[in-house]
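To close the section, here is one more complete example, presented without commentary so you can practise reading it yourself. The ligand is calcium ion.
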Amino acid sequence: MKNRNGRVTFFALLSVALLLFGENILAANHYILAGGAGDGSSWGSPLGTLPDSLIRGDTYYIGDGTYRAKAFSTSEEGAKLIIIKKATLTDHGTDEGWISSYGDGVASFTGTLTFKTSYWEFDGSLKYGFKLIRTRSGYIDEHYMNVYGNNIKVANVEIMGPGWKDCHLARGIQSTGDNLVFDACYIHNFSAVGIRFSGGANIEIKNCHFHNIRNLDNSVCYNLRGSQCHFEDIALFDGTKNVSIHDNIFSQDYTSKPQNVERGYGVMMSLHGGYLRIYNNIFFNLTYPIWLNSDGWGNLTDFYVYGNTFVGYRVATTTDGLDDLKNNIFCNLPSFFNNDSTRKAPTVGSYNLYCYDSRYVSDYKSASHSTALEQGICPFKDCVKDWRLVSPTDPGYALPQPYNKDIVDVTRGIDGNWDRGAYEYKSSASRPTSPNNLTIIPGG
Ligand SMILES: [Ca+2]
Ligand SMILES: [Ca+2]
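Output:
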């Protein structure tokens, strides 16, 4: 601390300050805007693209425009994050040189983004400030994002594939890392896979929308392109473990009936281990919402399926390895979904609600604490696009955290009745003055 003259040096003090407050003192903002040629110090002097090497602890704001492929390979420094976020009207760092047109649209990336090292946050700020697309023609087989590092969060990103009909082999995201969060992403229009995990542990996928991850016919695609056209929204393979999938929507277009014969897997699993918690999701018009690959499980310990809404399916969920199945709604209305293409919902759980199906109504009624609705009753505001409840269900089973909030964060049972399905129903007596009338429409 003291030099040979007994004086505390400026540099020694600075070292202590850096040790104590290092991230706060050093953290800086950088500004990137397509077409920029500055030093990145303000919106008046933006960089045109993210630099090759970024600075740990810093934040990089990106303005509207089109950007190219990027490999994120900056070395780690302990747990120091690098934050890359979309600049918005209300969150863009400095006002110096700022023009509102820099932040009222999206930042699009037309090449693959690859996270090679750990501790990154990539956040589009608003739904969906970052967009990953391809603009060229022909078969597109390279993945749109690769997540190879650990401790990475990806949020508010739209990943629009090259087309669900055309047997492309591209995946939205290919991932091998640990400690990952995917939040509020919209991944659609792929014929292979939305997100594939090839190993990795402690993974959370929430508030995302997967739409039209399918292909015209797998045998057609197999013959054309090989066996990578999997039509899986989320694929958990190769020893992936400890996964939580909640508050997501998995859907396919529903324009004429029957549509659900066109396949589509919501969550596909093989050799998965640790816990697997699937709750508060909506699965609409998928042939196999939750499906176990023929390779079977790994070392699975807790597999829970709670509070989901299944509408239109052939096999709603595997029951192989399933530890508990509660508070779900299973709905296959013959008026919407052809009897030939719909199958029986599982009856091994309890506190589930079943829509009417003449073939299975007696089984549904005899399931533990079940509800089997009468013929012609749809429990939702709209069976094909709005799965909020029109009235309370028979009480669900009260579960601990994290299962005590619904898909839009309403506390379960806040009105005295814990409802089944992804949406909690709030009776008018306790409804706040400004309810969250969120309507989620497939494709939107
Ligand atoms: Ca703009
Ligand atoms: Ca309720």
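Once you have examined the tokens, check your reading against these statements. The chain has a mean pLDDT of 89. The longest helix spans residues 10-26.
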